[in-house]
Automatic annotation (TrEMBL):
It comes from Elstera cyanobacteriorum. The lineage of its organism: Bacteria, Pseudomonadati, Pseudomonadota, Alphaproteobacteria, Rhodospirillales. Binds 1 Mg(2+) ion per subunit. Binds 1 zinc ion per subunit. Keywords: Amino-acid biosynthesis, Cytoplasm, Histidine biosynthesis, Hydrolase, Magnesium, Metal-binding, Zinc. Catalyzes the hydrolysis of the adenine ring of phosphoribosyl-AMP. The gene is hisI. It catalyses: 1-(5-phospho-beta-D-ribosyl)-ATP + H2O = 1-(5-phospho-beta-D-ribosyl)-5'-AMP + diphosphate + H(+); 1-(5-phospho-beta-D-ribosyl)-5'-AMP + H2O = 1-(5-phospho-beta-D-ribosyl)-5-[(5-phospho-beta-D-ribosylamino)methylideneamino]imidazole-4-carboxamide. It is found in: Cytoplasm. Its cofactor is Mg(2+); Zn(2+). GO terms for cellular component: cytoplasm. This is Phosphoribosyl-AMP cyclohydrolase.
Amino acid sequence: MSAAEIAPLLDAITFDANGLVPVIAQAHGSGEILMMAWMNRDAVAETLTTGRVCYWSRSRQSLWRKGETSGQVQQLIELRLDCDGDCLLAVVVQEGVACHTGRRSCFFNKANPETGAWDVTSQPLISPQDLYKHGTSH
């Protein structure tokens, strides 16, 4: 997509006071919710232009191209905007795991009202040490 084609799409998004919009990554086909992250205007534009999902890292204050350190890339199938214009859904093909803990999904803690604890519903498929050879996360 060209910058001219992307501009009206970006203009329809309501970014917060920090210039960010939340985005949920969902696995294409299965519908599994993989993760939640943030995008700024540049991240959305890059994602739409390249087809590779790019987020904004609040901790590093820089663009974060999913998989740049782990190899666990997300390819964009479609990007959806919610009815209020303030949340995105990225339907993706996930290569490997999505979570920095080595799990397929970041949503592996399930509330257990009977015990008052969070039950872990899945184990890592790869160790974080193997996932991030250089000690970085995400």
